[in-house]
Amino acid sequence: MIEITAGDIVECVDDSASRPESRIMPELGRLYTVASIRPAGDGHSVRLKELKPSCHLGGVCVCGQCGWDATRFRKILRPRSTFLLELLKISTLEVV
How far is 86 from 81, CA to CA, in rounded Å? Predict the structure, then answer.
């Protein structure tokens, strides 16, 4: 089951080009925002807001269906906005 959804922040963990037409690739270690994700073959294809893939015809993708395999990314877990405030309240109560 895929844990990545649209709007998630992901880190690239694999920047190797697996196909010769892959001219534009995510950078290893860089963070990206998932624009969309869809089933593709036996996995999922991820579109990124910050980067557009190159099509097999040599240009930047305009079809909106190209993307990168979801296994190239790991989701960055972000705490909800109130979590840090709750931690700060707890830590100030415990300080004596």
Answer: 10
